[in-house]
Structure formats: structure tokens, C-alpha cells
Specification:
The complex is a heterotetramer of chains A (about 240), B (about 250), C (about 220) and D (about 45). With about 250 residues, chain B is an all-alpha fold. Chain B has a domain at about 50-180 and about 195-230. Helix content of chain B is about 75%, strand content about 0%. Chain C is α/β, with parallel strands linked by helices. The relative contact order of chain C is 0.20. Chain C is built from 7 helices and 10 strands. In chain D, about 75% of the residues lie in helices and about 0% in strands. Chain D contains 1 helix and no strands. The longest helix of chain D has about 30 residues, at about 1-35. Chain D is rod-shaped and about 55 Å long. At the B-D interface, helix 2, helix 3, helix 4 and helix 7 of B face helix 1 of D.
């Protein structure tokens, strides 16, 4: 019996299994589309009320897109781990023998896909509400930026979401832990998006160095997360 | 009973000596910093804040380095010991204290010299992020669970912070160089230090480092005591638990 | 096969919060046994099972499960046991089939094994494609058991497995456990359903005030 | 002179908060010290 038993899934298979599972749950539960997206859009509208000037709005549109993304990310992370915690699935994951790197990558991947959807909607909202301009080259830069930035956010989110998953007061602990860490993402993604939108006459070419920062961030936290997630899950 | 009236719980003759030297040093530092040392040509009297501010900031960074190193020592199997975890925790607590202090003294100094409490200079911004990060670290330490659970969790977090800080610093610096307004942090900072001023600053760093060692030793021992108290409570609780079946 | 028993606990102490839930438990379970854990609420049965699953830390004492030391190597224990706790560990938005397949695949089960597990708990027909959130408590329990079957564990740890199940479900459960034990698995069951579990178990032990009292073999 | 308040303030903040922290550490360790006798402390 025991020789049969050790054929548990590889890192890649586990990652795919978890990502597909999380995305399927989201497709059925529709928490992102029915709750998080409307929240993000309301935030965008509220910014417009607070800033109350077309010129200012146009100038700060890239920052607002990413700020709204950041706040919404916190909800998506919380949801991602509420799914595991509500019926003891976390204990089953711990006893499954599935490699923790696979669990990390799977959850991060599902998170990243959801955040990408969120960013696309918010960029469209910025174009409509704040009259941001988007050229063809700008579009390429923006897509690449969105992939790198959401990758970084998803890695950090999964890491700290897993850390605070079982903790009391996790609703307030999560923002305290996550927000300082993702400051480079906010800075990098905002600058890159400014170039993509051509805000203040910044050329598209100036945005690419920021992409380097975002990519380094995503890779660093992706690798670290895959290594460290096991000891966070290992309660 | 003697233990209840005991005053010096976490002290040894070494820490007592260290404490006396530190207190004397602080006294000397205050006298030198506030009265004896001259005003600076550029900064005027505000340079006196530096004697408290610079050592404080130095200390906070030292403390966070110690936290990182002892967290790694805890995670490394061959040196796994709760002592490392307690040193990490004690050091982070002291670090947060000194970082908070130097943020306040720094902005008081900035108000005099630059006319503003805060500027988005890379060093300042990184410091603020460092402060918030370690406040979060202390919050995670307070989450509860078993001692090793606490240790493992917070050690991973401390190492993540080590990863985070250069990234934050680098991105803020990049952000700042592209910023439209010229950085205010460059102005008014040129100090032509004469011998006494340099000595005061040097003394400050030494005295604060001694104070750091003193604080971490005591805090670390206090943490060890608290852990031991919990374990002693366990013996009584075990006896009570076993007695349940009689009822 | 080495004669190392699957579960050996020596003076095991487990603390949750500041409370010693297990206050020096001693227990040895031999391979192929079905051990019934009896005892009042709050005696520590659930904690005992979670300890054996490698999910909680041993504060004092020693424990070996499936040859792995609980103090140093809990991770190795974990992926060789199957735990059914009070919670079912199911995702309410997924269907019965998706849940069982997910848990089966995390341990590398094949499609055929997953289908067999569903059939074993009579979930392969009408219920297979219904979301868990639409099921009754008993049907959820059945699904959790099917997921457990798909995991092919060496040590089965069940916490009140009969709860919520109807008569047919209980019979199926008993049959599943008997077959698993025959195939070489070791089983520990915490239950209040003494009559039913009593006929199933090969031995019963009593858990009282965080300690384990061996009540000897049942013939 | 305006600056004097700032300078004194920064010294008071620095050494005041250190003193408060020291007091809290001492208080906590004294409370714990009632339970743990001298012989059980590894540093004595």
C-alpha cells in the first residue's frame, strides 16, 4: 500500500489543480464580478467627486487606477483564503502532501487572473471617466505592465494571505502587512501607466524601465513565496 | 517571600555595569549636545538635534539587521533555538521604538532647517515604510499560537522584510529622481563638523549602541521569562486537567 | 514489514491556547486495527486525531506516527494520513464530482480511482454533478467520505464520521472501513454512536480528561 | 527663540520614550520574575 501512496502530484500539477479549482469557484460564486468590481468602480467615481477637476483627474488617472486595484486586491486575497478556511479545506490541503510551492503558485496564478480582469475594467473606466488617452504602443506597454504588476501583487497577496489565514483580526492585519510591501508595485505600475496614457506628455518609451522594476518584484516574490509558503502553511 | 520583592529580575553584573556606563554616557551626551558643542555655520542651533537623531536612526537599522540575522539563525535547522526568536523579537521592538523616535526628531529637525516636517526623500520614505513593516511584524508576533509557531511565522516575515526594504528604497529613489520638484533633502545638510561636534556625534552612536545592547538583553530575558511563566502555568493546568476525571 | 506500530504516543501533551487538551496521552495502535475512541465531550478526542494527523504541535512527550517522529517530522506524517474532521473540507461552490476529483488528484489518484470512490459512496448517479451548497448535511458527509476514500491513506482518522448519515450511509461507511482495514490500513474512529461503532471496532479506548485509558480488545 | 522648543522637544521625545520603554520592560520582567525563581533563569 505504501509504495502506491507516494505518487502525489508534482509542483506543476498541483499549481494547475489549485488554480483551476480557485477560478472555477470564482466563476460559480461570482464574488469578483458581483462585489469587488462594483466596489472598484465606485472608488473610481468617488475619486472624481473628491478631485472635482477634469484636468487633475486626467493627470492622476494612472495612480487612481492602481490605487483602486490595490484596495480591491485586499478583498480578492481575503476571499481566496476564506474559501479554504470556511469548511476546513486548509486542513485537508495540509494533509494532502501536495507540495506547498504548487499550492502557492496555483493560488497566486488564480489571484493574478482575477486581478488582470480587474485592471482591464479599471483601465476602461479610466479612459471613459477620466478621459485618458491610449495609443497603440501605449496599449502594448500597458498590457505588459498589467501582467507584471498583477503577478507581483498576486505573489505578495498569496504569501501574506496564507500567513494571516487562520489568524484573528486578519481583516485588519492583511492590509497592514501587504500595503507597505507593494509600494514598489504602486510606484512602478503608476509611472508605466502614465507613459502608456501619455499623461503630462510623457513618452511611451519612458515607461519601459519601470516595467523592469515590476518584473524584478514579481520574480523575487514569486520565487521567495514558493520557497517560504510551506513554513507559513505548516502550522 | 523573597522573589516578590525582587527588583533586578533580568539583570546580571554585566548588564548592571553596561547600564551605568550607558546612563553616564547619556548624561555626557546631553551636556555636550545641548550646551558645550558649538552651533553649526549652516544649520545653526538645529544641529543639536542631530546628536540624538543620527544615533537613533543608526540604531534602528542595526536593530532590524539583528532581527533579520537572528531570524535566519532560527530558521536554519542546526541553530534552531527559541533564543534566536526572542532576540529577533526584542531587537525588532527596540528597533521600532528608535525608528519612531528618529522619525519624530528628524521631522522636528526638518521643520527648523527646511521649513517642512516631511519631504519625500528616498531615505525618509524608506524609513517610514520600514517602521510600518516592523509594526506589522510585531503584530504578527502577537498573534498567539505555540512558541515555535510564533517563531517560524515571524522569522519568515522578518526575512521577507529584508527582501522588501531594498525594493522600496530603490523604487522610491527612482520615483524621486524623476519627480518634477528638486529634492529639498539636498539643501542645508552640509555640515562642517569641528572636532567637538564630531566627537559628540561619535559619542552618541557609541552610547546608543550600548543602550541597544542593554535593552535587547533585558527584553530578551523578559521574553524568556514570559515563555517560562506560560510553561509553569502548564504544569498547574496539566494537574487540573488530569483531575477532571475524578469529578 | 517492520513491527513498528502505526501510532505510538508516550505522555503526549498538546496545548491549545493555554489549555492542555491532551494531558499525557499514552496510546499504541497496531497495523490493521480499527480503534474506537470513546469519551465525553471535551475529553480530547478531536485533538488526539489531529495530533496523529500531524496537524498540531506536540508540547511535551513523544509520538511516532507511521514511523515518523511527531516532534521533528510532522510533514512526513501528514501526507500519509486521511483525516475526516468535524468540518468536511469541501468547497461549497463545486460539485460532488469536482470535490472528490480535486482531493483525489492532490494525492495523485487516477480518474478510475476517483470514479470508484464516488461509486463506493453511491454518489456516482444523480448527485454527482450537484453543487455541495445544495446538498443536505448527510449528503455532504458522504461526499467527504468519498474524498477520503480517493486519498488511499495508510492511517484513517475519523471524527464522528456517522454524524448526519442515514442508515444506508452508515452501512456503507462501516463496509468501507472494514475493507480498508483488510487492505492494511489502520483506522481510528472517534464516535458517540457506541453500538454501531462498537460492532465495527476491533478495540476501544476511552479518552478522559486529556488521557487515554485502554479498555482492551473487543471480541 | 523658536528653535529652542524644537531642540528640547526632540531630546525629551528621545529620552522620554526610552525611559518609558525601559520602565515597561522592567515592569513586565518583575511580574514574570515572581513565578520564575532565580535558579531557573539561564543567565544567572
Amino acid at each position: 500500500m505504501s509504495e502506491r501512496r507516494h505518487a502525489f502530484a508534482s509542483v506543476r500539477a498541483t499549481a494547475r489543480l489549485i488554480a483551476v479549482k480557485d477560478l472555477r469557484i470564482e466563476r460559480r460564486g461570482r464574488v469578483l464580478t458581483n462585489q469587488v468590481l462594483p466596489f472598484a468602480l465606485i472608488v473610481m467615481v468617488m475619486f472624481a467627486f473628491a478631485l472635482d477637476s477634469d484636468a487633475v483627474l486626467e493627470r492622476v488617472a494612472p495612480g487612481l487606477v492602481w490605487l483602486a486595484t490595490l484596495f480591491s486586491t485586499l478583498f480578492v486575497i481575503a476571499r481566496s483564503f476564506a474559501v479554504e478556511g470556511s469548511d476546513g479545506a486548509l486542513d485537508q490541503l495540509r494533509t494532502s502532501g501536495a507540495p506547498s510551492a504548487g499550492i502557492f503558485l496555483g493560488k497566486a496564478l488564480a489571484l493574478m487572473v482575477q486581478l488582470l480582469v480587474l485592471v482591464v475594467v479599471l483601465v476602461v473606466a479610466a479612459v471613459v471617466l477620466y478621459r485618458a488617452d491610449l495609443s497603440w504602443q501605449g496599449g502594448v506597454l500597458l498590457v505588459t505592465t498589467a501582467v507584471a504588476a498583477t503577478g507581483g501583487l498576486a505573489a505578495v497577496g498569496t504569501l501574506y494571505g496564507g500567513l494571516s489565514a487562520g489568524a484573528k483580526g486578519r481583516e485588519t492585519l492583511l492590509p497592514l502587512l501587504v500595503l507597505p510591501v507593494v509600494a514598489p508595485v504602486l510606484i512602478g505600475a503608476t509611472r508605466a501607466t502614465e507613459s502608456a496614457f501619455g499623461t503630462n506628455g510623457i513618452a511611451v518609451g519612458e515607461g519601459w524601465p519601470w516595467l523592469g522594476l515590476l518584473a524584478v518584484f514579481a520574480v523575487l516574490f514569486g520565487v521567495t513565496g514558493a520557497i517560504a509558503f510551506g513554513s507559513l502553511l505548516d502550522e | 517571600m523573597t522573589p516578590t520583592s525582587e527588583r533586578n529580575v533580568t539583570g546580571t553584573s554585566f548588564t548592571r555595569g553596561l547600564g551605568i556606563v550607558t546612563v553616564l554616557g547619556i548624561g555626557l551626551l546631553i551636556v555636550l549636545g545641548l550646551f558645550v558643542s558649538p552651533a553649526d555655520v549652516n544649520q545653526g542651533e538645529s544641529v543639536r538635534i542631530m546628536y540624538a537623531h543620527v544615533p537613533g536612526a543608526w540604531l534602528a537599522y542595526l536593530a532590524f539587521i539583528v532581527t533579520g540575522v537572528s531570524s535566519a539563525a532560527y530558521l536554519w535547522n542546526r541553530t534552531r533555538s527559541l533564543t534566536w526568536d526572542r532576540i529577533a523579537g526584542a531587537s525588532a521592538e527596540v528597533g521600532v521604538l528608535f525608528m519612531g523616535i528618529s522619525l519624530v526628531t528628524g521631522s522636528l529637525w526638518g521643520r527648523i532647517t527646511w521649513g517642512t516636517y516631511w519631504t519625500w526623500d528616498a531615505r525618509l520614505t524608506t524609513t517610514a515604510f520600514l517602521f510600518v513593516t516592523y509594526v506589522g511584524y510585531l503584530a504578527v508576533r502577537g498573534l498567539g499560537g505555540s512558541h515555535h509557531q510564533r517563531a517560524r511565522r515571524s522569522a519568515v516575515l522578518a526575512l521577507l522584510a529584508v527582501l522588501e526594504i531594498p525594493l522600496v528604497h530603490f523604487s522610491v529613489r527612482l520615483w524621486n529622481t524623476l519627480h518634477q520638484e528638486a529634492s529639498v533633502a539636498g539643501r542645508g545638510t552640509d555640515v562642517t563638523m569641528d572636532g567637538l561636534m564630531l566627537f559628540s556625534l561619535f559619542l552618541g552612536v557609541i552610547v546608543f549602541t550600548l543602550m541597544y545592547v542593554w535593552l535587547v538583553l533585558h527584553r530578551q530575558r523578559a521574553l524568556a521569562l514570559q515563555d517560562m511563566v506560560e510553561d509553569f502555568g502548564l504544569d498547574a493546568a496539566l494537574a487540573a486537567r488530569r483531575a477532571e476525571e475524578v469529578v | 514489514m517492520a513491527p513498528d506500530p502505526p501510532v505510538v504516543l508516550n505522555d503526549a501533551v498538546v496545548v491549545i491556547g493555554a489549555f492542555p487538551v491532551l494531558a499525557g496521552a499514552n496510546l499504541t495502535v497496531r497495523s490493521g486495527e480499527i480503534v474506537l475512541l470513546r469519551g465525553p465531550n471535551g475529553a480530547g478526542k478531536t485533538t488526539l486525531l489531529r495530533l496523529c494527523a500531524g496537524l498540531i504541535e506536540l508540547k511535551r512527550g513523544r509520538g511516532r506516527v507511521l514511523g515518523h517522529d511527531l516532534s521533528t517530522d510532522r510533514w512526513s506524517v501528514r501526507h500519509r494520513v486521511g483525516l475526516l474532521g468535524h468540518a468536511n473540507g469541501l468547497y461549497p461552490d463545486l460539485t460532488v464530482r469536482e470535490n472528490v476529483a480535486f482531493w483525489g488528484r492532490t494525492v495523485g489518484a487516477t480518474d478510475a480511482e476517483i470514479a470508484a470512490a464516488l461509486r463506493r459512496m453511491a454518489l456516482d448517479a444523480r448527485l454527482a454533478d450537484v453543487q455541495i451548497s445544495r446538498l443536505s448535511a448527510g449528503q455532504r458527509r458522504r461526499t467527504a467520505l468519498a474524498a477520503l476514500v480517493a486519498r488511499r491513506a495508510e492511517l484513517w482518522l475519523l471524527d464522528e464520521p456517522h454524524a448526519g448519515l442515514d442508515a444506508a450511509g452508515r452501512d456503507e461507511l462501516d463496509e468501507v472501513l472494514r475493507q480498508a482495514a483488510q487492505a492494511g490500513a489502520t483506522i481510528m474512529v472517534a464516535s458517540h454512536e457506541l453500538e454501531r461503532a462498537g460492532t465495527l471496532a476491533t478495540r476501544q479506548v476511552e479518552v478522559v480528561a486529556g488521557q487515554v485509558r485502554d479498555s482492551g480488545a473487543i471480541s | 527663540m523658536d528653535d529652542l522648543g524644537f531642540i528640547l522637544g526632540s531630546y525629551i521625545v528621545t529620552f522620554g520614550s526610552i525611559a518609558l520603554y525601559v520602565a515597561s520592560v522592567v515592569k513586565r520582567s518583575r511580574r514574570a520574575g515572581r513565578v520564575v525563581s532565580r535558579e531557573q533563569r539561564p543567565w544567572t
